[in-house]
What does this fold into?
Amino acid sequence: MTLDPFLTLDIIDDDVSALVEAYLADPTSRTAAFGEGYRIDPAAAVASHPFARTLIEQSWAGEGLRHAAVRAAVLLAEPERVRASSRL
It folds into this structure.
């Protein structure tokens, strides 16, 4: 059985916001720690989300719209669970 890390509070809203801000500051960044015991690649999340991928490339898209698109992509992505030995 897989538990939703958002429901178990392993990942909270502040984690999502920090990841979105980090991605928008540097879209080339790769895998990052995400919440309590997870990691995620925000660039891969955006690339796999058709709306976010398209919107990010639009010159007319404002900061708020880009933020919302990246947030949606991150929330729909499946973060990778980090094993205790991998965190050392």
